[in-house]
Amino acid sequence: MRRVVLGLAGILLLGGVVLLLGAGRWLVVEDPLEKAQAIVVLSGRMPLRALEAAKLYREGYAPKVWVTHSSEPGATLEAMQISYVGEDFYNLRVLMHEGVPADTIRVLEPPILNTADEIRAVSAALEEEKGGTVIIVTSKVHTRRVRILWHRLVAGRRQAIVRAASDDPFDGRWWRTTGDALDVVRELLGILNAWAGMPLRPAN
């Protein structure tokens, strides 16, 4: 009996290791490209996401590019009377450098704290402009959570085409660097939170 128990424990442990090692690749998903109302640059990983959005714009997938902007650390620094130029400022410069006209770029409101806020801001902008589809550009490891949050928060009212920055070096072998390992852990926890109905909220 002891050998059987140990054998089952070993199998479960091995299965858990295999699943964990494969988590990095499972997190990366992409949707087929098609024409859309706008291409959205989510906050983070500058300039990779903006560069990918500019590439898709030049290829004619959408006539506009939308950029989200974070409320932090700007709000905290403003309270200390320290001027801060947000990430969206630089994303705009990257987009224009890569050939996106300034009058086709829109910074979305309101400022965001997390990905769920970004999804809500994009959905509101789509509704305002009577659009049906957007292309959302993010990092590879972040794609599955973006897709899950879109389906949870927007449902079937609008369509999001989730795309990863093609120059993102993440290849699924997350155990090789601390940065990739932290990304995978954060994404898995974020997905669990989304599946649970988002009981965990961003800190004020």
In short:
The protein is an alpha/beta fold and 204 residues long. It is 47% helix and 11% strand.
Which SSEs are present, and which pair or pack?
Elements lengths: L1 H20 L1 H5 L10 E4 L6 H11 L6 E3 L6 H6 L7 H11 L7 E3 L7 H14 L4 E6 L4 H11 L5 E6 L13 H18 L9
Parallel strand pairs: 1-2, 1-4, 2-3, 4-5
Structure description:
- The chain is of the alpha/beta class.
- It has a single domain (28-170), classed as 3-Layer(aba) Sandwich (Rossmann fold), CATH 3.40.50.620.
- The chain has helices spanning 2-21, 23-27, 48-58, 74-79, 87-97, 115-128, 143-153, 178-195; strands at 38-41, 65-67, 105-107, 133-138, 159-164.
- A five-stranded parallel sheet has the order 3-2-1-4-5, sandwiched between helices.
- Helix 7 links the parallel strand 4 (133-138) and strand 5 (159-164).
- Helix 3 runs parallel beside helix 5, helix 6 packs across helix 7 (143-153) and helix 7 (143-153) packs parallel to helix 8.
- The model is unreliable at 4-18 (pLDDT under 50).
Here the CATH topology equals: Rossmann fold
CATH class categorisation: Alpha Beta
Which structural class do you get from the secondary structure elements? alpha/beta
- Overall CATH architecture: 3-Layer(aba) Sandwich
Keywords:
5-stranded parallel β-sheet, 5 strands, globular, Rossmann fold, alpha/beta, 204 residues
